[in-house]
Amino acid sequence: MTDPLTPVAAQFEAYNRHDLPAFLACFAEDFRSYRMPAETPTLVGKAALAAFYAEHRFNNPALRAELLGRTVVGRRVFDHERIHGLGDQPLESMAAFEVADDGLIRAAWFYFAGQP
């Protein structure tokens, strides 16, 4: 199995560069994203991920993430982040990434401060 930290670190760096091809290269074709506490995915598939980030994230020049902490537990990587550029104030979040044996991110769960 590939080190789960590798694709998570790569997608984080690509996110801050707004480099969509490099960002997408870190994710599996059947990727699923959850915005907690949702029980169903908010994004399904790499194509949906590409469209969302092209239209709602990487078109924002102020967007950047600050890594506050990172923990690896088995195939999961937990990033505590502060996201700038989505509102007047930075948004604090916890992202949990599940990395498959092929070294691609298969799923991610996002928790945002201030949400139940």
Automatic annotation (TrEMBL):
User: Which superkingdom does the taxonomy of this entry point to?
Assistant: Bacteria
Enumerate the spans annotated as SnoaL-like domain.
Answer: 8-106
Per its UniProt record, what InterPro entries does this chain match?
NTF2-like_dom_sf (IPR032710), SnoaL-like (IPR037401), UCP030561 (IPR008317)
Q: What is this protein called?
A: Nuclear transport factor 2 family protein
